[in-house]
Amino acid sequence: MARKAVRRKGSERPSATIRTRPAPAGKGTKMRKKKGTTPSSARGAAKRHRGTEGGRGRNKTKGTERKPKLTEEGIEARTVRAGRILAALRRVYGQETTTALVHENALHLLIATILSAQSTDETINRLTPGLFRKYPNAKTFAEAPRAELEADIRPSGFFRNKAKSIQGACRMILERFGGRVPDTMEELLELPGVARKTANVVLGTWFGKNVGVVVDTHVGRLAERLELTWTARNAKDAVRIEQDLMIVLPQDSWTFASHALIWHGRRVCTARKPACAQCELAPYCPSAGTFA
Ligand code: SF4
Fold it and tell me: 243 CB contacts (<8 Å, ≥6 apart)?
């Protein structure tokens, strides 16, 4: 009983301007209570999306997943602490920190981000220079023989799904958006293979619009360890993590915070071996020093 009371307290919203979040699928239903009864439609959806955004990955972080502690920290205190974390990230990474994905235009960034799902930025940066020379625009991607494009992006993994997404997105960019990558969340989400993570990368990094927070595997893990999320079920619960981060971080910091947390997750707070002793965020991190 005490656990429930504490969690409700931490979940209070500061004002009516906070956006509502959709109820988790199946919450409170009998189906959810039965173990091992994932609906076949959900299993199918996960399988279909494997290799594109939101899909299940093979890079498990076994042994390091932790349930968020149920602290009594309220929204105000958490927001103050988030501000200190943000300031530390600015000191360490600089305000201009950005994505590691090499790109020259919005289309390149969109395609590189689609390709980066379940892969590494290093792999994608080795792949894209040749790819973008061969396919310089949306038309060439859209008209490429599918098998040839699949072969060209094979090193990124899940190449069949990714080729399908890239061609679908490029066709829609040509047919619906006049050959230009759209610059609104609503329009980007219409593109095949594009969900909020990719849309946030493109909007924040190329168009300079702070519409949301990019929640990839690093941001999810750090949000949980730093206890900047209090509603997420785990570090992969990107929708809730993003919504919590959007509450405790100022909007003009969303893109910066995304990139800085990604860099910090790669360099310091890694999945298997977080270097708490060297971490600039340790004074503000409830998980500091808790990893054996
Ligand atoms: S103190 Fe440790 S757990 Fe917290 S952010 Fe730094 S490395 Fe990660």
Answer: 19, 21, 231
Distance from the CA of 55 to the center of ligand 1, in angstroms?
26
Residue 275 tokens, joined: 């270097």
Q: Is 187 buried (19+), middle (13-18) or exposed (0-12) by CB count in 10 A?
A: middle
Query: Is 153 touching ligand 1 by the criterion CB < 6 Å?
Result: no
Q: Is the CB of 268 under 6 A from ligand 1?
A: yes
Find out whether the beta carbon of 287 lies less than 6 Å from any atom of ligand 1.
yes
Residue 60 is among the residues annotated as catalytic for this protein: no
* Domain 106-284, CATH class in plain words: mainly alpha
Q: What's this model's pTM, rounded to 2 decimal places? A: 0.77
Taking all residues of the chain, what is their mean pLDDT, rounded to a whole number? 83
Reference 185, options 157, 221, 219, 209; nearest CA is: 209
Domain ranges in the chain are 106-284
CA angle 153, 53, 99 (to 5 degrees): 75
- List, run by run, the mean pLDDT of 10-residue segments along the chain (292 residues): 36 32 34 36 37 41 46 88 98 96 98 96 98 98 98 98 98 98 98 97 98 98 97 95 98 98 98 97 96 81
What is the rounded distance in angstroms from the CA atom of residue 91 to the CA atom of residue 287? Answer: 21
Cβ atoms of residues 201 and 209 within 8 Å: no
Q: What is the CA radius of gyration of the chain?
A: 20
